[in-house]
Specification:
The protein is of the alpha/beta class. It has helices at residues 16-27, 39-54, 67-84, 88-91, 100-111, 163-169, 174-191, 220-230, 273-279, 281-289, 304-319, 329-347, 355-377, 436-440, 454-461, 463-466, 494-512, and strands spanning 37-38, 97-98, 140-143, 194-197, 268-270, 381-388, 394-398, 401-406, 409-415, 421-428, 441-444, 447-450, 471-478, 486-489. The chain has a five-stranded mixed beta sheet. A three-stranded mixed beta sheet has the order 5-8-7, covered by helices on one side.
Length: 535
């Protein structure tokens, strides 16, 4: 019913419609929908609404005896009661207050995959789940979706309960599911006069499906014939899938990735792009010269880069806010959480899928740890710039020619007493602490060589601010282990920073000469968007 309808509008109505409207009006007042309140209050509203509509089980006159309605009500009440049984110790870690509308969205999500059995009808064929088949005495059975991942079913990935932990805890894992489904199929085959097994070719999204391994004989020769028959190959030769690119093999054995083409010399480069070239020149060429990238508008969870980007946005907004000089950790944390929730509400849907809310709660834990660190840090350092970009071009001289260095510095802080500067980059990591030297250099043949030039080149970008004043470079790290949250400064010497600039010049020379070949096979992890086309 429209929310604008009130008692006056319904005065002329009679009968069932008016009665229904009155119940809804009494229990779901429109002004309550936008107000945040404890979940227990909304749970009681839902329980009261169901009782008003369908009565109490001990009231034979007012109780609805429709089995399907009873089952639906029971599932709603079980879900609501489950929320109420959450231990007090966990309630502080959960959004225990929300608007009734949000809570109904949660209820809808939890009940979305629940099944309500239809009333049995003699003239109809009964549908049941795979696990119910052993208990059915029908002489004939037709089983659909006999495909890998369904029969046998499998847990593809679970970040909280990986396979070994499941096995040690004695709960369902893939081996036990395999044994269970194998037994069910054997029981089906041996106990039915007639049965038919159907495997699908593709799912609802159009992705191809594999037939279940249970459909094929253990003997290799028989299995090959069964596969040919299933896919309708007959005596046709098998069409082989083109192999992935292999840069180590000869051209007559494997399809080779295309060689880089000659391009116009670049005139500018971001300081973060040096890392990509040093990791793999060819992938640098694909990512930054050809600008290959993936596009996905169905975000179900944040990958590490997106998770870090979201944290960066919150922290940089904080560094520009009036709270940036605060030494009160609660004040800082309150701002950060409020800002995060605002960004998430603007960027994602009103009802995100389950992984996203979990990741947002995890990020809140890191932001609270940062707030504690920042409150102490602010007693010595004041934030001078956030997301700083130089007003004038910063040029790097390379053999008499220049290239424009681009970049955005997360933060520039200044010591309140000495006036010295601190150039900071935020790092959101999955491990413990990480130092600048760990990410910028590695040991090769007994020497430390540069693999990333970000912080040393930040020093060049900030020169018009820091001038000749003493400067420190460092990371503010927000790790998964929040106890390690804090500032980690670089300890490079002047000679080592000069060596970093020479490395930058060497990279620019190679880019100008078009040296992008061969690919580095060890760099795949740094370029996940290119993995489908390059091993």
């Amino acid at each position: 019913l429209p929310l604008l309808m009130d008692a006056a509008a319904m005065a002329g109505e009679t009968g069932t419609i008016k009665e229904i409207w009155q119940i809804l009006w009494d229990f779901l007042q429109p002004e309550q929908w936008s107000k945040s309140q404890p979940i227990a209050v909304t749970s009681e509203m839902i329980r009261g609404l169901l009782t008003a509509f369908f009565g109490q089980a001990d009231d034979p006159d007012g109780y609805v005896h429709n089995p399907r309605i009873l089952e639906i009500c029971q599932k709603i009440l079980e879900t609501v009661q489950g929320w109420e049984r959450v231990p007090e110790s966990l309630r502080g870690q959960l959004p225990w207050e929300a608007t009734p509308l949000d809570i109904l969205h949660w209820l809808e999500q939890q009940l979305f995959h629940e099944r309500i059995a239809a009333e049995p009808q003699e003239a109809c064929i009964e549908l049941m789940g795979w696990l119910d088949i052993p208990w059915d005495d029908a002489p004939c059975a037709i089983v659909t979706m006999v495909n890998e991942g369904y029969i046998p079913s499998a847990i593809r990935s679970d970040p909280f309960l990986p396979p070994r932990l499941r096995e040690s805890l004695g709960i369902d894992d893939n081996l036990r599911r395999f044994a269970r489904d194998a037994y069910n199929l054997s029981l089906l085959v041996s106990s039915r006069e007639e049965y038919q097994l159907i495997a699908g070719r593709q799912n609802l999204e159009g992705d191809p499906l594999l037939p279940s391994r249970f459909l094929f004989a253990p003997d290799d020769k028989v299995m090959v014939e069964q596969v040919r028959e299933y896919f309708g190959l007959g005596n046709q030769p098998i069409r082989r899938r083109p192999p992935r690119w292999n840069t180590a093999a000869s051209d007559d054995q494997h399809l080779q990735p295309p060689r880089p083409q000659s391009v116009e010399p670049i005139t500018e480069i971001r300081v973060t792009q040096f890392r990509d070239y040093l990791a793999c020149p060819y992938r640098f060429y694909l990512r930054h010269i050809l600008q290959l990238a993936t596009a996905d508008d169905q975000i179900e969870e944040l990958d590490p880069a997106s998770f870090g980007s979201l944290a960066h946005q919150v922290l940089c907004d904080f560094a520009r806010s009036k709270h940036r000089d605060s030494t009160d950790p609660d004040d800082i944390a309150e701002y950060l959480i409020r800002k995060l929730e605002s960004i998430v509400k603007h960027r994602f849907s009103a009802a995100p899928v389950p992984p996203l809310p979990i990741q947002i709660e995890q990020l809140k834990v890191r932001l609270r740890a940062f707030a504690t660190f920042q409150a102490e840090h602010a007693k010595r350092w004041r934030i001078l710039h956030a997301e700083y970009e130089p007003a004038n071009p910063v040029l790097l001289d390379v053999d008499g020619k220049t290239i424009h260095l681009l970049g955005r510095i997360d933060r520039i802080d200044q010591d309140r007493e000495t006036g010295s500067f601190l150039i900071v980059d935020y790092k959101v990591t999955e491990g413990d602490k990480v130092t600048p030297d760990q990410l910028h250099r590695k040991k090769v043949a007994g020497e430390r060589v540069w693999i990333d030039l970000q912080l040393p080149l930040y020093l060049r970008l900030a020169r018009e601010v820091v001038k000749d004043t003493a400067v420190n470079l460092g990371y503010i790290v927000l790790p998964k282990n929040t106890e390690a949250t804090g500032l980690y400064q670089a300890e490079w010497t002047e000679d080592e920073l000069i060596q970093a600039e020479e490395t930058a010049r060497h990279v620019v020379r190679k880019i100008w000469r078009g040296e992008f070949w061969p690919p580095n096979p060890d760099a795949e992890g740094r370029f996940p968007e290119l993995s489908p086309i390059l091993p």
